């Protein structure tokens, strides 16, 4: 979703970020749940993945729900952006 409409700044503001790259091919990495209180992540535990890690530019005003470490940088992998009439963009 964050790789759509790359020239549309308003779209980037709406979704709260933009995909940059997934360097390094397939990797083993850990996803860490940052917010256990949100209904989206309630009941989830940290988990392991083997796939491409996406590197994204993420708006600092997003509510971070899950993170991973990419080349020693803590990176958001799931974040909550806005609420519109009771709906949320995740």
**Largest sheet: number of strands, sense, barrel closure:** 4 strands, antiparallel
Question: Based on helices, strands and strand pairing, what is the structural class?
Answer: mainly beta
- Mean pLDDT across every amino acid position: 78
Unreliable sequence segments: none
Number of discrete helical segments: 1
Distance between the termini: 10 Å
Q: Gyration radius, to the nearest Å? A: 13 Å
Strand content: over 45%
Overall form: flat
SSE arrangement, N to C: HEEEEEEEE
Number of domains: 1
Helix content: under 10%
* Strand element count: 8
Overview of the structural elements:
The chain is mainly beta and 90 residues long. It has a four-stranded antiparallel beta sheet with strand order 3-2-5-6, with no helix packed on it. Strands 1-4 form a two-stranded antiparallel sheet. A two-stranded antiparallel sheet has the order 7-8. The termini are close together. 9% of the residues are buried. The protein has one domain. A hairpin with a 2-residue loop joins strand 5 and strand 6. The radius of gyration is 13 Å and the shape is flat. The chain has one helix and eight strands.
């Amino acid at each position: 979703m964050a790789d759509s409409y790359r020239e549309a700044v308003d779209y980037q503001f709406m979704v709260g970020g933009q995909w940059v790259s997934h360097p390094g091919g397939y990797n083993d990495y850990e996803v860490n749940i940052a917010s256990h209180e949100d209904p989206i992540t309630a009941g989830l535990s940290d988990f392991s993945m083997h796939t491409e890690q996406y590197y994204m530019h993420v708006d600092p005003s997003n509510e971070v729900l899950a993170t991973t470490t990419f080349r020693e940088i803590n990176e958001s992998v799931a974040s909550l952006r806005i609420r519109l009439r009771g709906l949320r963009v995740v």
